Amino acid sequence: MAAVCQVTGAVPGFGHSISHSHRRTKRRFDPNVQKKTYFVPSLGRNIKLNVSAKGIKVIDARGIESVVRDLKAKGVKL
């Protein structure tokens, strides 16, 4: 599963791990992406979304209907 949130668009960040001796190695900071199932009354069915923790909070605040409308406007297939 790709580490990309369908709601917020959060993608991995890149940087360095720094050891005690200050040697740097490349690393990747992945967003907390989870597969969640939501029931959408307007579609009359469940949809599965890959959402980050912040994306879940956005859905709770705005409602799944509003989020689905915006995703369809962006051209995301649900």
From TrEMBL:
GO biological process terms held by the UniProt record: translation
UniProt name for this protein: Large ribosomal subunit protein bL28
Molecular-function annotations in GO: structural constituent of ribosome
KW Ribonucleoprotein (keyword) present: yes
The organism's place on the tree of life at top rank: Bacteria
Any coiled-coil regions, as ranges: none
Gene3D superfamilies hit by this protein: Ribosomal protein L28/L24
Family per similarity comment: Belongs to the bacterial ribosomal protein bL28 family.
Keyword list, A-Z: Ribonucleoprotein, Ribosomal protein
Any Pfam family: Ribosomal_L28
Cellular component terms (Gene Ontology): ribonucleoprotein complex; ribosome
Family matches, as PANTHER family: 39S RIBOSOMAL PROTEIN L28, MITOCHONDRIAL, LARGE RIBOSOMAL SUBUNIT PROTEIN BL28M
Gene: rpmB
SUPFAM superfamilies from the UniProt entry: L28p-like
Organism: Microbacterium lemovicicum
